[in-house]
Amino acid sequence: MKIPQLKKKPEIKTYHDIVLEDNYSWIHQNDILEVLKDSKKLNPEVKKYLEEENSYTDFHLSDTKDIQKELFDEIKGRIKLDDESLPFKDVNYEYWEKTTKKGNYSIKLRKKIGSNNIEEIWDGDFEKKKLDVEYFGVGDLEVSNNDKYLGYSLDTKGSEYYTIYVRDIKSKKLVTEKIEETSGTITFSLSDEHIFYSKLDSNHRPRKIYRHKLGTNTKDDQLIFEEKSEAFTVGISLSSDEKYFFITASDHNTSEQYYFNSNENEPKPKLIEKRKKGILYSINSWNGKFYKHTNEDAEDFKIDISSSLEKPEWKILIPAKDEVLIGGLTFLNNWIIRSETSNALDKLFVKNIKTGVEDELIFSDEKVYVPGVSLVQKDRKTDKIYLGYSSPKTQSRVYLYNLSTKEKKLVKEQEIPSGHNSKDYIVERVDCKSHDERMIPLTIIRHKDTKLDGSANLLLYGYGSYGSSMSPSFSLTRLSLINRNIIWVTAHIRGGMERGMKWWKEGKLLNKKNTFEDYIASAKYLIENKYTSKKKIIGMGGSAGGLLMGAVVNQSPELFLGIIMAVPFVDSLTTNLDHTLPLTIGEFDEFGNAKDFKEHFDYIFSYAPYNNIKKMDYPHILITTSLSDNRVLFDEPAKFTAKLREYKTDNNLLLLKTEMNAGHGGKSGRDGAIEEVALDYAFALKITKKI
Hints:
- This protein is of the alpha+beta class and 691 residues long.
- Among the domains are: 11-76 and 426-687, Alpha/Beta hydrolase fold, catalytic domain (Rossmann fold); 81-117, no CATH class; 322-414.
- It is built from 13 helices and 38 strands.
- Helix 3 crosses helix 13 and helix 7 (513-528) crosses helix 8.
- The two termini are 22 Å apart.
């Protein structure tokens, strides 16, 4: 089949006395955010190119149709399709969700406490059919405090422009007209007369908080807070004791909060502490005390306590620990539960408020697992909580745990209809040395029959940005590769916070290359220790993990058999130079500001995947993107693919798949998500010659 060719239209720009020539920059439209909302506005020539690339991909993966179907059925066969979540007991009702065998979206249910009459208040599949849309993204589902209204927000393009609706649950009639172009979050006032929401500006940034009175015209909505900095976005939340609303303005690196009483007729947010660059803080209130989670004078966070916000006198409640990330708090009347993360592992601690004694909650003998906690009921005069647990080889389990008696009862275990035996799998946690002697945690899972003699293929997954830690939790999907003797490794590289804030700081801004070096060091360690061999590794990452993939494949292509990139941030210099894009300004503290600072320009230019493509052999590459993605615009992977076709000197596969009705998270619905995984895995099996 003819290889798609994107027309060259050279454009020359100069930054800091450096001339950049870009043959493919023309595909970026000035009205790109309008294109995300309405694909009909897409340049016809660009649309034709994307469709040609899709046809080319379909042609070269036509021999994988059977394995894609097999993988789809296999993965879906591990899912209990007709499942129900555990109930949450509110004041008057119990609420829970369920899925069905035929449906792709959840159903929200409730019943009055003490009654057996179950009421269906939301059916995602029905709502999607009613709207007659291909993409159906649910942003928020919130029930009012009086249980009368359901607030919901929908994105029907994948562009993350959410429309808010509020309807009467009994009559199913809308009680207020739709509110368009919001961030999607819905917060009811305690009186249920109003909702609070954040509006997106012309650059898709939520910088205004409005109060809307139910049943009135949205033109009369009251602006209660506006963030002036284009780098900051805003959100609103209710305190644990429901006495205050907190408005948080933040970028990735700095935050500032305001508060007002939850019963105020006319909200007038008051500043708590003025923002300081590099300082993150968040306040909560409970039982007459205020709790501040902050990294001020505590790199890996601490928790302070005060009796007042008007004249605060903060005292340390939970002190900082070096390279141990101190998490937030969950409150009950008699208990405080909190989390810590160190060495890419989470821990839970519970403190008896009356005695002051704190203990770690340990409920597994596995070395690598993920704990979680959630409330059983709204009334916090209880000693009972839900404790969740999973590991790379053990499916999710939830216990009803009594904090006082320490009794636990298994109330839900993830059911795998096709069967699963955790004893068939081996999980390891090892550390490998990076270029600067820093030790990188690796979580390794393999089938017990997979040989460690270098003969196995291996998928090396990485992300390493925004302080996002990769959790070693259970995955139904990856078993399809592991059962075919492909070892799965998650590299907990710098740029995340698996080892605290230092781990993040050492992988961002002018330290960003540590992220790539850590990943390459991980690949070499796995080769040296016979988990795999050169050209048997498949690299995988999405979004900022796609930036990682692009950087490492330019730097060390010889290590890899293949690369799988999802919605990859590969034209990172161009995006950083464009301050009108939704995320750019808010990410100056993550990647730098190449437009205003030459040092940042030079550094990003030195690793940006698109700018560092070379004339050399590349491994097999599969790139997936979405037309309505506003986080990583589709033109980044499209340009990257076009330039890579021009430069690469091999005959390996280079495939670009663009979802024409999807967003940053890919297709909507359960089946859509499985189809995308099946495509990625079929590509992996094709290049490893396992089909």
